[in-house]
Amino acid sequence: MTLVKTCGMTRETDIDAVNAAKPDLVGFVFAPSPRQITPVQARAFKRRLVPGIQSVGVFVNAAPTEVAELVNNGTVDVAQLHGDEDEDYIGQLRRLLDRGEIMQVFRIPPDLERAKEVLEKAKQSLADKILFDTGSKRVYGGSGEMFDWGILKNFPRPFFLAGGIGAENASDAIAAIAPHGLDASSSLETEGRKDPEKIRAFVEIVRTIDPQTNKKKAAQ
């Protein structure tokens, strides 16, 4: 089954929407961003989440001690590293963790040779999970733009896919490259705010995919 991650929750009503839709993971952004929230807000959101939905903290070049504190105190279950964090950083962070997992983000650039170099690094990553997003010189966080998924075909590790993912192309992504998980943020918004209907539609379309065939389940 393809996992579903919805990222960038900023309000209690966003948490209510994901509680109703039941994705597998939700993201709290701690890095500078229009969707940035504080640790205090994140703890309140975590308490509001229904059991079974994991919380993911999105960090960009934060001190390992800062990341570890939010994982160890239960604010987040997964630390998503979206900056320039390298293997030394991951090793240091892992030594500080008492619980939780590490997800490393790899940004796919448009240049094919550079993209292949990124894939080689991703294969060797010490992180528990990896996520591929569109490379952007403008921002560290997600760009909301797609890249050529074909480069990930036959990638040897399970991975999450981000970058312009939403209800309208989720089934195409699963059929094309069978990612372990899909991650959406800006596509779930209307006028810069999370839209409960878009969240519901995104989760629902992924849940209709047959894990054996990676195609939509036949109507009963």
TrEMBL record:
It catalyses: N-(5-phospho-beta-D-ribosyl)anthranilate = 1-(2-carboxyphenylamino)-1-deoxy-D-ribulose 5-phosphate. Pfam families: PRAI (PF00697). Belongs to the TrpF family. One of its GO terms (molecular function) is phosphoribosylanthranilate isomerase activity. Keywords: Amino-acid biosynthesis, Aromatic amino acid biosynthesis, Isomerase, Tryptophan biosynthesis. Pathway: Amino-acid biosynthesis; L-tryptophan biosynthesis; L-tryptophan from chorismate: step 3/5. CDD domains: PRAI. Its EC number is 5.3.1.24. HAMAP family: PRAI. It is an enzyme of class 5 (isomerase). It comes from the Bacteria. Residues 4-204 form the N-(5'phosphoribosyl) anthranilate isomerase (PRAI) domain. This is N-(5'-phosphoribosyl)anthranilate isomerase. One of its GO terms (biological process) is L-tryptophan biosynthetic process.
